[in-house]
Amino acid sequence: MTWFEALTLAVLQGLTEFLPVSSSGHLAVASSLFHSLGEVEDRPDGLFFFVMLHLGTLLAILVFYRRVMWSGARALLSGGGVGETPSRAIVVRSGFLACVATLPAVVVGLTLKRTVDEAFENILVPGFAFLITAALLLSTTRMKAGLKGPAETTWVDALLVGLAQAFAITPGISRSGSTIAAALALGFSRTWAVGFSLLINVPAILGASVLVGKDLRIDSLAPEVIQMTVLATILSGIVGYGAIVWLVRIVRSGRLWYFSVYLVLLSVVVLGTVAMTGRSTESREMTDGQGHRSATLDWPGGVGLVRSGPGTEGAGDDLDRADSPGS
Fold it and tell me: What is the Rg, in whole angstroms, of the alpha carbon atoms belonging to the chain?
């Protein structure tokens, strides 16, 4: 892996992990491009690299919502409910809803892993899936902002958002786009729709990082690889933070559909390229250092799913400041 490839993928991961354009689809396309240019070497350090990129974007979430997490921690310890501090019941309920929303993706990831592996090998899959994401984003233009917050959200609502997230296991279908669209359709406020989408991304990244990274041998990596990975991780986190700020503003203004135009154009480019070259699949495997094929990290655009392939998916103020509850 070259410095150019590492930094390019870091920026791509940081942007597309949170924006509704599918990080998995973009990284599949980028990996295919690097592979065709002869820039990719399938080595164990690639697996370590993608795990770290995801941890970088996880850090972006934690930094962005640091005030919310601090308020939640105080509420758990003191009971909360004073001033802007949420009550302990709301914090516990939010955690419960996040767990419910995580279940469908875990089930789908475990039962359809082979199918997803194969989908990631075929560049036609994200090419067509980008169009599905575009349609989902366009549908949000007909949705009115709801008033549901954590207190009004039922476990059925959380399960339906989780099903949307599981649907986004397909490379090219945005996790953030699917979950936010589902949340808005269920009557979530714009603030809670974004917040819940990002909340359920945390166990996704953590779970996937543990599952994929538990067999990694860091001591076998060259110093240059570690240096490259550290800088790329920091870059993905910085870019990811900016992407979250942008996402909050976009959802707040009701302009998610803007990204549908980009996705349609991207789909045309990908499918047109395949039509002209006649190549829709690439062999992009990485090994775990012992000759075994390893799956890299991805999340249905980002809850702890593991895929083979190149990795993933989709206002510096806290959640309450990012948008007004009823907007």
Answer: 19
Single-letter amino acid, residue 292: H
Overall domain count for the chain: 1
CB 250 within 8 A of CB 204: no
Q: How far apart are the first and last CA of the chain?
A: 45
Range of the domain at 153: 3-322
Angle, helices 175-185/201-213, rounded to nearest 10 degrees: 150
pLDDT score recorded for residue 305: 33
266 in any annotated domain: yes
What pLDDT, in 10s, does the model give residues 43-91? 445 667 888 888 899 999 999 999 888 888 888 887 766 566 678 888 8
CA 250 to CA 18: how far, in whole Å?
12
Residue 109: alpha-carbon gap to chain centroid: 15
Would the pTM of this model clear 0.85, i.e. be above it?
Answer: no
* Beta strands at 305-307 and 286-287: parallel, antiparallel or unpaired: unpaired
With a CB cutoff of 8 Å and minimum separation 6, the contacts of 243 are 14, 15, 16, 17, 18, 19, 60
285: helix, strand or coil: coil
185 domain residue, yes or no: yes
Residue 153 lies in a domain: yes
In a domain, 327, yes or no: no
C-beta neighbour count of 218 within 10 angstroms: 12
